[in-house]
Amino acid sequence: MNRENKFIGILFECCNVYRRIYINKEKNAYEGKCPKCNGEIKVKIGLGGTETRFFSAR
Ligand SMILES: [Zn+2]
């Protein structure tokens, strides 16, 4: 079974908002937007998946 997460929790530092962002179609990164300022964020997934669960957008 592939237990790779479909989303990760992320803290948008720009607006201090916590939100989940989801894996993209290519399954090589998590992508999302800040709900307040619409700032985009992309978190690449390394080989073996990503270990860090929290990221900060600026
Ligand atoms: Zn923001």
Brief sketch in words of this structure:
The chain is mostly beta strands. 0% of the residues lie in helices and 43% in strands.
Description:
With 58 residues, the chain is mainly beta. The protein has one domain. 0% of the residues lie in helices and 43% in strands. It has no helices and 5 strands. The chain has strands at 7-12, 17-23, 29-33, 40-44, 56-57. The chain has a 5-stranded mixed sheet, with no helix packed on it. The chain is elongated. The mean pLDDT is 81. Residues 12, 14-15, 34, 36-37, 39 line the site of zinc ion.
Mean pLDDT: 81
Topology as a string of helices (H) and strands (E): EEEEE
Query: How many beta-strand runs?
Result: 5
Taking all Cα atoms into account, the compactness measure Rg is 11 Å
Assess the beta-strand content as a share of residues: 35-45%
List bound small molecules: zinc ion
Low-pLDDT residue spans = none
Helical/strand content category: mainly beta
The total number of structural domains is 1
Number of helical segments with 4 or more residues: 0
Strand sequence of the main sheet, in spatial order? Answer: 4-3-2-1-5
C-alpha geometry: elongated
Largest sheet: 5 strands, mixed
Amino- and carboxy-terminal Cα gap: 35 Å
Tell me the helix content.
under 10%
